[in-house]
Specification:
- One of its GO terms (molecular function) is helicase activity.
- Keywords: ATP-binding, DNA-binding, Helicase, Hydrolase, Isomerase, Nucleotide-binding.
- By secondary structure, this protein is α/β, with parallel strands linked by helices.
- Helix content is about 45%, strand content about 15%.
- Strand 20 (about 665-670) and strand 21 (about 680-685) form a beta hairpin.
- It is globular.
- The protein binds adenosine-5'-triphosphate (ATP) and magnesium ion.
């Protein structure tokens, strides 16, 4: 152990050895907070003779818990039964022992969010309420907010007349099933520890409690920790108020600020030396976070060499940005950097698609942490299924997928019947016509006929509508957009954004490949299907893609942060309040400080929104980094093609006959400028003389 202690710096050592009063370690990113917790536990066991099972260490995620346990056992070189877990798992353990006190049998069931929604659905049905007005996912989050005390039941009554009744029935049914949801776990844990004898028993039992990522605990979790340690003050919490990024989930920055109030004799130790980042990266992080007003304020230094400057790439477009990232990664891999040493962060999930496409094109294996790959998302699969049904009359799987999505009263019985029909009838539309004849009710018949109409309508639009508009048309004609709004009230917008991204992708693909109509979609679908097949074949090391939120606590030698534009990062929803922007800045600080050696920042001057390019401004956070730390990457210094400058071999020689999507074939009269942005004036038989930008033309001769 003496040797281990030598692996710590002065303040870290002090933090590990201090037991005289409650301990608050407030320290910036990468300063060894998690390391201190781990070493402190090891020290308690090895040197102070604590029984491991009487130490409780709380982490933010299960993944973090496993990692901590591994590190600990690495230090001690043996297995130890320390309670390393999240607050939720801790409460489950308490409840297994004492649930009877709260009226639950010890073998209670835990309801996840799907179970929860299913139960709510049933209740809405039983109460004869309109399922359109009471969507299960909205009600689920209302219930959660009420349970957490964010809103009162009364105030919710204003929006949902029957919410009181639903709430009561929901809890009653849960209890009848001997079940608890996630909120119940924390609440019950707190309630058990509010009982005098249990409080005594557990606060006696645990000789020491440690909490990592303390800045992101919420009120109920705080109360649990408090009841275990209030009397003896045997607690050590580590956190960084500059990394509080979950205020929307009820995490409370006040917790950290009020620790000293609840424990007046608390000792505060600051760790000021960062071991993770290069000098340059750390200077940038410090400069950025200094712009926040709501902070206790601390300085962080490092002895690591300055290393390479931060790279900044100003892309002309989002496509170019993703190409820059993927081609740079490719160069790194060639030089021997391990894929697992590289991470790409973005602010919102929808941004991953364009990055995924670029990585796939370069043949770089990647994994998405805490997210679903773009083409595997439900809303994307649904819309693609409509497209496929319209294109391929034989695609039964896609037909079954959309038969009752959105809900049109064609449930299991109808599906069974359709499957029967499809055994003899080849062709989706014919089968649907037969189904219309054989269903029992007039309502169902109408529903099937409507579906046939929808498919026909999409089919009709395929040759004429531009791709982005076609995708939009699919979501409106099928009622899919309304369905999203109803079923996913909290996140329908981000789902819809994903669908719009799909439209953007196909539009890009069309322009790149100079394809249109049926041919375009068939090509596009086979491209994405093939590439996802390859994904599955790839094994071994992968580059990591994730949102900034998911990156908390982790570290990577090489980090890319994409989309540093106003409205994206900081996110548009944060812009109307100072607090909102400060939270975004903390998030940016988290992102920057994940990088050990190399940080690459980028933004796009134009980004595709809603099918057309909009110009965007670079993020204010970029201006907060001192310019001498940054080196702009010039276009010629990087490999890969600049976006939009398509390398059609024809673009250099003078075209004679061209083809345009809308105008058809044309005879060229004049060309001004060169390359893809050249202005071409041509005569089109049905439209007369038109001037068009080269990139929208296919050169025929
Ligand atoms: P975050 O705020 O991001 O959670 P943290 O404060 O928890 O960061 P750690 O993850 O514990 O920081 O440490 C950051 C890195 O620095 C780790 O790789 C860790 O092993 C290393 N490190 C910390 N302290 C020392 C030390 N005294 N000597 C050598 N390496 C150290
Ligand atoms: Mg940590």
């Amino acid at each position: 152990m003496k040797e281990l202690i030598r692996e710590l710096n002065q303040q870290q050592r002090e933090a590990v050895l201090y037991f005289d009063s409650p301990l608050l370690i407030l320290a910036g990113a990468g300063s060894g907070k998690t390391r201190v917790i781990t070493y402190k536990i090891a020290y308690m066991i090895e040197e102070l003779g604590f029984e491991p099972e009487r130490i409780l260490a709380v982490t933010f995620t299960n993944k973090a818990a496993n990692e901590m346990k591994e590190r600990l056992e690495g230090l001690l070189k043996r297995e130890v039964p320390v309670w390393v877990m999240t607050f939720h798992s801790f409460c489950v353990r308490l409840l297994r022992a004492h649930s009877v006190r709260l009226g639950y049998k010890p073998n209670f069931v835990i309801f996840d969010s799907d179970d929860k929604k299913r139960l709510i659905k049933e209740i809405i049905k039983d109460l004869n309420l309109d399922p359109d007005l009471y969507s299960p996912s909205t009600i689920a989050s209302v219930i959660s907010n009420v349970k957490n005390g964010t809103y009162s039941l009364d105030s919710m009554n204003l929006y949902y007349e029957n919410i009181g009744q639903i709430f009561e029935l929901y809890n009653k049914r849960l209890k009848e099933s001997n079940a608890l949801d996630f909120d119940d776990l924390l609440i019950c844990g707190r309630d058990l520890l509010a009982q005098e004898d249990l409080k005594r028993r557990y606060s006696d039992y645990f000789r020491y409690v440690l909490i990592d990522e303390y800045q992101d605990t919420n009120r109920i979790q705080y109360e649990i920790a408090l009841s275990l340690t209030k009397e003896k003050g045997n607690i050590c919490v580590v956190g960084d108020e500059d990394q509080c990024i979950y205020t929307w989930r009820g995490a409370n920055i006040e917790n950290i600020l009020s620790f000293e109030r609840d424990f007046p004799n608390a000792k505060v130790i600051k760790l000021e030396k960062n071991y993770r980042c290069s000098g340059t990266i750390l200077k940038a992080a410090n400069a950025v976070i200094a712009n926040n007003r709501k902070r206790k304020g601390k300085t962080l230094f490092t002895e690591n060499p300055d290393g390479e400057p931060i790279r900044l790439f100003a892309a002309e477009s989002d496509v170019e940005e993703s190409q820059f990232i993927s081609s740079t990664i490719k160069q790194f891999l060639k030089k021997g950097v391990k894929p697992s040493d590289i991470a790409v962060f973005y602010r919102t999930n929808a941004q991953s698609r364009i990055l995924e496409d670029a990585l796939r094109k370069e043949g770089i294996a990647y994994q998405i942490v805490g997210g679903v790959k773009f083409y595997e998302r439900k809303e994307i699969k649904d819309v693609i299924a409509y497209l496929r049904v319209a294109l391929f009359d034989s695609d039964v799987v896609s037909l079954l997928r959309i038969l009752n999505v959105p809900k049109r009263g064609l449930g299991d019985a109808a599906e069974k019947k359709l499957k029967e029909i499809l055994k003899v009838e080849k062709g989706n539309l014919k089968a649907l016509e037969k189904l219309a004849e054989s269903v029992s009710s007039a309502r169902q018949r109408k529903a099937v006929e409507d579906l046939i109409e929808i498919i026909r309508a999409i089919r009709e639009k395929i040759p004429t509508l531009p791709p982005y508009d076609l995708i939009k048309f699919i979501t409106t004609v099928s009622g899919y957009k309304e369905y999203l709004q109803k079923e996913y009230r909290e996140d329908w917008e981000s789902r819809y954004e994903n669908i719009e991204e799909l439209g953007n992708t196909i539009q890009d693909f069309a322009e790149r490949e100079k394809l249109e109509g049926e041919e375009l979609y068939v090509e596009f679908l086979s491209t994405i299907t093939l590439s996802s097949d390859q994904d599955e074949m790839e094994e071994g090391e992968k580059v990591t893609l994730m949102t900034v939120h998911a990156s908390k606590g982790l570290e990577f030698p090489v980090v890319f942060i994409a989309g540093l534009e106003e409205g994206i990062f900081p996110h548009v929803r944060s812009l109307d309040s100072a607090d909102g922007v400060e939270e975004e800045r903390r998030l940016f600080y988290v992102a920057v400080t994940r990088a050990k050696k190399l940080l690459s920042l980028s933004y796009a001057k134009r980004r595709r929104f809603f099918g057309t390019y909009k110009s965007s401004q670079k993020s204010r956070f970029l201006d907060e980094i001192p310019s001498h730390l940054i080196k702009e990457v010039k276009k010629k210094e990087r490999s890969g093609q600049p976006a939009l400058q398509k390398t059609s071999s024809t673009s250099d020689k003078k075209p004679k006959i061209v083809f345009h999507k809308k105008f058809g074939k044309g005879v060229v009269k004049r060309v001004e400028g060169s390359g893809d942005n050249a202005k071409v004036t041509a005569f089109f038989a049905n439209y007369g003389e038109k001037t068009v930008i080269m990139k929208f033309l296919k050169v025929l001769a």
